[in-house]
Amino acid sequence: MSTDWPSDVVERARLHAALGEPARLAVVELLLLGDASPSEVGRELGLPSNLLAHHVKLLEQAGVVERSRSEGDHRRTYLRLRTTVFTDLVPTGLRQAPRVVFVCSRNSARSQLAAALWRERSSVPAASAGTRPADRVHPMALATARAHGLSLPRARTHHLDEVLQPDDLVVAVCDNAHEELGADRTDRLHWSVPDPATVGTEDAFDIAFRDLADRVDRLAPAVHPTA
User: Fold this and answer.
1) Residue of 67, 6, 1 whose CA lies nearest to 37
2) Which of 96, 105, 110, 191 is packed most tightly, with the most Cβ within 10 A?
3) pLDDT in tens, 158-186
4) Is the pLDDT of residue 59 over 90?
5) What is the pTM (predicted TM-score) of this model?
6) What gap in Å lies between CA 119 and CA 150, rounded to an integer?
7) Contact at 8 Å (CB) between 178 and 172?
8) Structure-model confidence comparison of residues 216 and 90, the more confident one
């Protein structure tokens, strides 16, 4: 006897099937708090490239992950979790850090907004910095913060060397910063958030803000202050 299952049941079954293999679940948990290139995922999980490609393909087909092209090294792609698929997915691994430092190349928009959002949602201190800081915070970043009820008082840009301390948890919120920082610092997360300044519209800044807000909401419960 055949059964015509509702489409939403079929989609949920595909999701459970995609996650019903340890390696694929490990990929999803790795991407839960930050984005990563396939080579970074393979290195972290110890998976050979051909096996990782197989698992990533199945996760893409199930709508669990998607790819984005790096704004820095345009040959590189990053995997990111499609969070709308998981309504009840929460972080499983807790982190301790005395402070969270959000980093982008110019420290003029994304990192400033991420730090402001973090201060609203976590008791762990936050700061922001840039690898090649601009002269000032982008006016549309200030306007976007005001539009969402956030404050960026006396916001100034800073170079990472002026801000970073040894035990900080670094969150690179742009591809360029992540790639410029290299692999020297292992305790780092990467959020592949497109640069709204390249588009320069209110909508682009609002999209970046909502992306950052979603990611901050996921990360904040997983980071506890260092005792």
Assistant:
1) 67
2) 110
3) 999 999 999 999 999 999 999 999 876 66
4) yes
5) 0.78
6) 10
7) yes
8) 216
Q: What letters, b where the CB count within 10 A reaches 16 and e where it falls short, cover 95-129?
A: bebebbbbbbbbbbbbbbbbbbbbbeebebebbbb
Q: What angle do CA 103, 188, 96 make, to 5 degrees?
A: 110
In the chain, the percentage of residues whose pLDDT exceeds 90 is 76
Which tokens in the block code for residue 2? Answer: 């055949």
Confidence tier at 90 by pLDDT (50, 70, 90) = very low
Q: What is the total residue count of the chain? A: 227
Report pLDDT digits (tens) over 66-79.
999 999 999 999 99
Longest dimension (CA), the chain: 70
Q: Is the pLDDT of residue 89 over 50?
A: no
Closest CA to 189 of 116, 132, 114: 114
* CA distances in angstroms from 174 to 89, 115, 141, listed in the order given: 24, 14, 15
Task: Mark out the alpha helices in 62-174 (DSSP H runs).
Answer: 110-121, 139-147, 160-163
Helix (H, G, I), strand (E, B) or coil at 188: strand
Q: How many CA atoms lie within 13 A of 10 on its CB side?
A: 5
Beta strand 95-97 with 100-104 is: unpaired
Give the CB-side neighbour count of residue 35, counting CA atoms within 13 A.
28
